[in-house]
Amino acid sequence: MAAAQRPIEMYYWPTPNGWKISIMLEECGLPYVVRPLNIAAGEQFTQEFLAISPNNRMPAIVEHDGPGGKPISVFESGAILVYLAETFGAFLPTEPAARAECLSWLFWQVGSGPMLGGGFGHFYAYAPVKIEYAIDRFAMEVKRQLDVLDRRLGESRYVAGDDYTIAYMAIWPWYGAVVTNQAYNAAEFLSADEYRNVRRWTDEIAARPAVQRGRMVNRVMGDPASQLHERHDASDFETRTQDKLVAADA
Ligand SMILES: N[C@@H](CCC(=O)N[C@@H](CS)C(=O)NCC(=O)O)C(=O)O
Predict the structure, then answer these.
(1) 221 in the Ramachandran plot: left (φ > 0), alpha (ψ -120 to 50) or beta?
(2) Measured in angstroms, how far is the CA atom of residue 15 from the centroid of ligand 1?
(3) pLDDT at residue 249 above 50?
(4) Which residue has the higher pLDDT, 21 or 154?
(5) Which residues, other chains included, contact 47 with Cβ-Cβ below 8 Å and sequence gap of 6+?
(6) What is the 17 CA–ligand 1 centroid distance (Å)?
(7) S-S: 59 plus which of 21, 44, 147, 232, CB 3.0-4.6 Å?
(8) Span from the CA of 116 to the centroid of ligand 1 (angstroms)
(9) What is the pTM of this model?
(10) Does 126 score more than 50 pLDDT?
């Protein structure tokens, strides 16, 4: 990378869709700065952000020194993952069959995600009225998706091929969170323990240092050592986690 290149700006809030991109940037070791976008406060609706992400959703990235030296903004997590994989040259196979398989699973997640988050998560955990029909309908769909993943992971170590790719950076934040009860408090309701292959794979991906760093970015809950409220530089993971900041203040 040219020394003059400015860091990528990542518009981000710590949700599974956001983690996809923080994980990818950590995996690539690319210089980036976090632009926190508080979606609970409506910051996704500002004109400045809509110029970057017209669908008023994060994540989004801006690369000032993009292709041809021109600035570029990219929205939609799947598109960002493909863009970064292609420009960085990693985590997306170039051989057509392997690439197609990787993209199949990446698009599988992007298409399935709304049924899990906007459907099941919303009606099970957040809706002000509990509608049994809606909860059951989306729970059945999420269990079907978990079964698809589980069967695939019963056939091979990873979902798509033997290499770690952007497909896992998209799938893991959602399904890993569900089966480890870190999303919607629904693991028991969904009988998540039955999906043993998903659980095995989830733990394997979670052990990757870059995945752990990607999850720490702007995290405000859990073990203070796992929370990096402000990431300005890669060295912040060593020096500025909440446990260290609190100890330094004491
Ligand atoms: N398909 C989009 C979904 C992104 C998305 O749903 N982002 C949510 C947070 S996880 C958001 O920004 N919501 C703000 C809103 O709905 O106004 C992607 O994969 O990037």
Answers:
(1) beta
(2) 9
(3) yes
(4) 21
(5) none
(6) 7
(7) 21
(8) 13
(9) 0.95
(10) yes
Other C-beta atoms closer than 10 Å to the C-beta of 5 total 14
Confidence of residue 1 (pLDDT cuts 50, 70, 90): very low
The minimum-distance atom of ligand 1 relative to the CA of 42 is: 17
- The mean pLDDT value for 91-107 works out to 95
Distance 235 CA to ligand 1 centre (A): 29
Regarding the beta carbon of 56 and ligand 1, being less than 6 Å apart is answered: yes
pLDDT score at 3: 46
- At 79-92, the pLDDT tens digits run 999 999 999 999 99
- CB of 122 sitting under 6 A from ligand 1: no
Q: Which of 31, 162, 23, 21 is nearest to 81 (CA)?
A: 21
What's the mean pLDDT in 197-204?
95
Nearest to 217 by CA among 35, 8, 2: 35
Report how far ligand 1's centroid is from the alpha carbon of 58 (Å).
5
Tell me the best of 21, 57, 126 to mutate to test the pocket of ligand 1, counting ligand atoms within 8 Å of each CB and taking the most. 57
Name the token pair of 44.
Answer: 């996704």
